[in-house]
Structures are given as C-alpha cells and as structure tokens.
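ERR on first pass: missing label on line 2. Operator R.T. fixed the label and resubmitted. Corrected input:
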Amino acid sequence: MESLLTLLIFFPAVAGILGFMIEKENMRAYAIAVASIEFLLSLLLWVGFDPSNVGYQFREHASIIPSFGVNYDLGIDGISLFLIILSTFMTLIALIGLTIKEEYKNLVISIMFLEMTMVGVFAALDVILFYLFWELSLVPMLYIIGAWGSDRRIYAAIKFFLYTFAGSLIMLVGFLYAAYLYHQATGVWSFSIENWQNFAFGYKAQLWLFAAFFIGFAIKVPMFPFHTWLPYAHGQAPTIGSVILAAVLLKMGSYGFVRFSLPMFPDASAHFIIPIAIISLIMIVYTAMVAYAQKDMKQVIAYSSISHMGVIVLGTFALNSEGIAGSLFFMLSHGVVSGALFMLVGVIYDRKHTKMMNEFGGLASVMPRYATIFAIMLMSSVGLPLTMGFVGEFLSLLGFYKVSPILTAIAGTSIILGAVYMLSLFKKSFFGPITHEENKNLKDLTTQELSALLPLVALVIFLGIYPKPVLKPINDSVEAMVHKMEEKAVLPKTKEFIHKVNSVKKDEK
Amino acid sequence: MINPISVDMASLNIATLAPMSIIILGALAIIIIDLISGKLTKSFYVMISELFILLALGAVFGFNSNSRGMFDMMLIDGIAMLGQAIILIASALFIPLALTSKRFHEFSYPEFFALFLFMIAGFQFMVASDNLILIFIGLETASLSLYTLIAMHNRDRSFEAAIKYFTMGAMAAGFYVFGAMIFYALTGSVEIHKIAASLELNHFQPISAVLLATVFMLGAIGFKISLVPFQTWVPDVYEGASAALAGYMSIVPKIAGFVVAMRLFEFLVHADVPWVQDMLWWVAVLTMTLTNIMALVQKGVKRMLAYSSISHAGFAMSAILIGTTQANSSLFFYWILFTFTNLGAFTMLWVSRHKAKENKFGSRFDHPYEKFSGMIKIQPVNAVIMAMFMLSLAGVPPFSLFWGKLYLMSSAVNAGFITLAIIMGINSAISVYYYLKLIVYMFLKEPHTNDGTIYMKNASTTLKTIIGLAAFATLFAIFTTGPLLEMITKYVIASGY
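pass 2 clean. output:
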C-alpha cells in the first residue's frame, strides 16, 4: 500500500472525530477497536518493510507551500519503524487498561488525536511537518493531564506545555536558520530532512544550529537541568497520561537527536560529546538518587525515567552503531517497561487511591499475581539480563565505552543505583508484614488488567532473549547513518573520531 | 490673463477612484433611503452595506496594478490593492455581526451603516495614495467615523472609550501634521516618492530634521497601529466598544496604518538613515514584549485579546523594519491569517454577550475568564472552536497564524535579524500562557452553572455562519497558505517593495 503512512497518521484522527457521535456505553469497545486497527496497520508496515533497504521507505510526497519548500513528506526507516509500532502498541495497551469513567468519551478522543501526532512525528520527513506534529502533541496531553489528573493537575499541565513550547520555538528559529543556509548554498528552499542530512553545514553554523535544536530536544527528553516539568507531569497525570508520556512522548526528544542532530551536524555532535555526556551522567546519577528519596511510587518511576533517558542520550552520543542502535532499542524497552510500571502503579492507585509506599507493605501475599508482574517489570527496568531492559542499556554503555571508559564506568552505576531504588520500592511495598489492615482485602489483578499487562510481560521476556528481529533493522539503518556522518563531516578531526569509535568492531569481525 | 486650465479626462484616470466611489455612494444611498422610508430594519441595511462592500471588492480586483490618477494623488499599486482587499474583506466579514438575536441600540440607526461605509472609504484612501495630505484626509475621515461608531454602543464605558480614543487620536493627528510639515519644509513636496528622491539627493541632511519628522510620523502611525508607547488607549477602547467593533478595530485600521508605514519608513530603512532602523527595532520589540507581559495579568478575555492584538501588531511591525520583499509579503500574509482568527475569537465573545445587569460573575468585565469555566462540559463544540482560535493566536501549528509566524520569522532570519527572530519565538512562548489560561478555564475547570445559554445569548444563524467560516479558515490554513503566499508575493513585487 502506497499510502499506508498517511492512513496510519490520520486514521486515529478521523476515528476521533467520528467518536463524537458514539454513545457513551459503546465508547470503550470503539476505542479498543480503533486502537487495534491502528496497531494492525502498524504491523502491516513492519510486514511491508524491506529490511535490505537502509534508506527511507513508504515515501509519500505532496506540496504544501511550493515557493517556500514546505512539503508533506513521509517515510520511515529502521529507526522510526519500531517507534511507530511502539506508539500504536502502547496506545492500545493503555486503552485496554483504562479505568477512568468520568468524561470517558473526551478522554478517548484526546488519546486518538494524540496517537495521530505521535505517529506523525516519527513518520514526517519534512522539518515543518515534524514540527507541526511535535507541537500539536502538546495540546491533547495538556488536556489529559489537566482534566483527569490529581490535585495540582492544572499547574503540572501548564508547566509541561510552557516548557516544551518555549524550547521548541527556539528549535523553530534553528530550523529556519538551517533552511536559510541551505537556500544560500543551493538556491533552493527545502525543509526536507533527507536533503538536510545530505547537506554539509559549515562548522560554525553547525555549532549554533546544534545548540538551537538541542534546546528543543533536551527539554522534551528531558535532560538536566530542564527536567523539572517531568516529575510534576507524571505525578499529576492520570495513569494513561503517564503511560503515553513515558512510553512515547519522551522518545520524541531522543528520536530528534538521532534523526536531526547526529546526521545533520556530525562535527558539532562530536564537538559536544563530553558536555553532553556530563549532563547525561548528572541525569543518571543525580536523578537516581532523587528517585531513592521519593515516598511516592509514581515519583520513583518518574525519576527513574529521567535516569534511563540519561543512558539513552549517552548511547546516542557514542556516535557509533552499537551505541546508537542500543539507545534506540533502549527507547523501545524503556517505553514498554516504564509504561508497564506506570500501569501497575495505576492498578494499586485505583484500589487504594494512594501511591505512597508507606501505605503498603506485604502486598506480595495479598496480590501474588500483581507482585509477580511488578517484579518482572522491575527487573527489566533495572536491566537484568534476559529481559528487554538489559539489551539496550548494555549496548548503549558498550557503545560509549569506546569513547570514554571512565565516563562509562560512572554511567554504569545506573544499573546499581537502579537496583537500589527499585528494590527498596519493592521491599517497602511488597514484602514484610501487612502493616495496614485494609490492605488485607485488596483484590488481585482483574481480567481487564491482566489482558493489558500480560502482552507487555511476554514482550519484555521475548525481546530480552531474542532481540534480533527488532535490533537488526535498527542496526542496519544506524550503520548507514553513521557511515554518512563520517563521509559528510567537514573537519578531519571528526572523521577520525567517528572512524575510531566505529572501527574496533570491525577488527573483531 | 490666466490661462484656462484644461485637464484631460484620461490623465485623471478616474477608474482609480472606483472602489472608494462605490463605498461613498453606498453610504449616501443609505442616508437617502432612510429619508424616504423610515421603516426598514437593520437586516436591510446590513445586507445593502454588504453588497456595496462586495461591489467595491470586485472593483479593486478588476484593476491593473501600478497606476496613478487624479493629479498623482491616487496610487494604485500592488500593496494598495492588497490593503484595500484586506480592508474590504474584513469589513464584509464584520458587518454581518450586526445581525444579532438580541437588539442593540446602535444598529437601529441607519446612520451606523452609513458611517461604517464612510470609514471604509477613509481607510481605502489611506492605502491607495502616497500623498501625505490625502492620507491625512483618509485617516481623519475614518477616525471620526470610528469614534462615533464606538460611542453609539451606548454604555457608560463606550462614551469613555470614544472620548479617550478621540483625544488621543487628535494628538496623533497633530503628530502627523507636524511630521508632514517638516517633510514638506525639507523637500517641498507632500508625495512620498518625491520626498524620498529629494531626501536622497540631499543625503538626508539635515539629519536632525529628518529624524524629527520620522519620530512625529512614527508617533502618529504608532498610535493608529498601537505600538508601544502609544498603546495605552487600546484596552480601554476595546473594552468600551462592542466585541464586534473591537475585533474590527484590531484589524482594519491597523492594516491601513501598516501600508502607510510601509510607504513611509521603507525608504528610510533602505537608505540606512542612522537610528531609523534601531528606532523601529526597539518599538517592535517593546511592543511585542511589554504588551505580552501586560496581557498575562488581565482578568477579562476582551482586555486580554486587546493586549494580544497589540502584541501581534508588534510582530507585524518587525516586518517593516526588516524591509525585504519576503518580509513585506509576510506582513500581508500574517494580517490576512490574523483577520480570520481574530474575527473568530471576537465573534465568540460577541455571541456570548449578555446584558450588563445579568452579570453573574461579580466582575466588572463583560467576559471574565470565569464565565468560560467548564465550557467543554456544556458546549463541547464551541469550546473546541474557541480553543482553536486561541491556539492559532499562540502560533501552534497547523492553525492559521502559525504559518504567518513561520514566514515572518523566516524573513527575519533570512535578513540577518536572528536576535529578532529569537525574540519573536520567546514572545510566542510568553503569549501561549495567557491564551492557555482561557483554555484552562474552558477545559480544565468545573462549570459554574449547567446553563449553556450564557454562551449563546446573542447567537443567530448569521453569527454562527461567521464563526464556522473563521474556524474553517483557521483549521485548514495549511491548504491555502501556498497559493495565498504566491499571490501576495506577486503583488508586493509588482509594487516594488
């Protein structure tokens, strides 16, 4: 199908509009039906994906402003394919696990619009189109956090919106400047990501553009010191909001690094490795410590998200195929795992209306199935081998080892610190005697919750043992990208560096 | 013996006057009809005005660009046509707002519509001339009509607004005359192109006199298009005027002012006259930034929109200081998109207009934020449409004004004004906070009552159609930007800007 990507993007939006006309009682079935169709469409994308082609596939093209070079340009490669599937999959899972009853219809419609923007961000090959979906994704999320969140939801929603919006406007100026430079050099207006990736920006310009893009992406990731919106957003958001925020929206930032910063500005990327690595280390270590100090389960997971995003950024800026492919795989696994953890917290919140760890204790004996699934997800989050979390984290760190063993050693503490805060969370709430009488009668997982969580468990274990079907296409596209970066770098120093960090692997072969 | 003056009719080029003549004839016709038959109601007058406006619009487009007429008083070039087109289209969209379901005092007078048409003609003369005297006459005709239109709203605040606007406007007129006088003293001409040529010949000496004239002119035009520090009248006047007229004021007088500013300042900017560009830079930057910050603390939606429209004027003003073809095109592009969005936003306020004594919110404002609280639960479609207008004003893609901002920022970047572009970006980020405030009230707060009628007090089919039209134009701007931009650029290039 030639127009599969367009269908994938706009199907949820159209379904959302039609959803206004559905009666409340039918809405749940409708929501799951739409999300399933969307998920199947994205699987169809995988089926039709040609793994031997490392370039962009499923291309679609139409003009928006011809005189200004703005086009409706879509396409995917191994890098974006799985992020699209992750988006549709997590949306489906989150909708299955959705337990909110009030204003259910509005919530589902917002989720559908959000799904449109998520797929759109990953499928866009035109900078303006990318920006359009990127900004539009804020609006439904604002509504979801602000309308269904906890007490300070409005503050959290506005903080989330303002932070990201401000960052992306700086990024927009960067986009326009890049387009101007491209126009100066070629005489053509173009906002095509592909054209920009093939165009060698001057070194000075790269530094400025990198900085402008970086602000936009870093706020979204979120990187230290711009991370303060995230704990609020997570803390106040309803479960489904947290799941989608952690699973997909944060990945837009790290995807931006891989799609824009690295291939467009290889010299600037190499130039900024150490500062970025230091920021990442602060994210990893500092937020892990903060996570340990939290009393609220959801906050622990929120801070652990920041910590893990630090590893992802570190892997991306290893500038070699292991690091980048690893970080992309880590994005997927973090999406699945943190999404699952947020859902699990949501499960207990629905029962007790509190997320404080000291309100629990001994849950393992009351809710054995819940405790088991929680344990599996927790192990994967910590990075236990044979779970999905291990593969990505290990590869990201391995990649960066070639850049700097010392920094990698510090980053490696993420596994240890992760184990510390996660296991202490588990100990406090699941083991020991039952300290609160009312907890004795808590119900274990219902069928609805199980049907949302079991696919995640299966995925985490399967891809932990056999990641190849996913990792291979990612790796192929990444290798092509790294090769292009080396070719296109304007400074010999950068060429050497990229060659060096990538060559060890070739010796081993 | 004085030689008899003989004027060739062809050299007068009467056709340049056609659009204005149609409008003036229309105004006179309305007065005459009122004399003959006193029984006609507003729907007749609205529609007859609408027809004359559309006729004039047709006359504007049926004209070849770049010609002069009436002893060179008239200048119909590309930007004159664009300016007239925007004025007429905006007027055609705003005049039906008189067809409300509630009865309003001012619309029962046919004079309202006659004055409205006279005002349009005044604005048309402003944009279609580069003769400082004719521009002044147009400006005053339009302003005097507008003062009266505001006062006709017949509420305490309306009189206050009209008087305030009148006194400040009189001062601006004084500024204008002083500026024109100095230019005339320097060059012996009141035609802008001759002034430019003559000043260039003298290398802009004496510079202090040129700058003084420029400052006076900037004051006069800055008052009309509400640039800092001449913006203080705007919120009070908007608050006093009806929402429909306030929306109109946020668009039409300003585009007329921008065209005059473009004719007047462009050559000064291009000639690198010292300080002129810096002056415009500071005015534009302060206009967008300060008013954005003031808008943050407003409690009434209409006042917020007043400040927001000043800030948008600051955005558009930066196009004039950049002065490239792309920037000038982007000014018109921006303003056309802004017209539709602001039309929608003000009409939404207009349909929810209630009587002063029905104010349940204990606030001195007609439209406090609290009024819209929880609107999504009562009237979801209207809330979504209003939210769309707010997001568009904030510059969230894909809604219309985003494309205007994009193109304007791009023209800034392309001309080397990177700092200005970043300031625009930051200002958009600041402004999103107050637009969001309304969205937060509509979507995230609990409703006051379950009585949806407060949002639709004043609705009629006509008003709903206008809202629908504005929403459609805002939502689907992505499909119209390409051709629109091409057309605008063609006209702007044709007139040499």
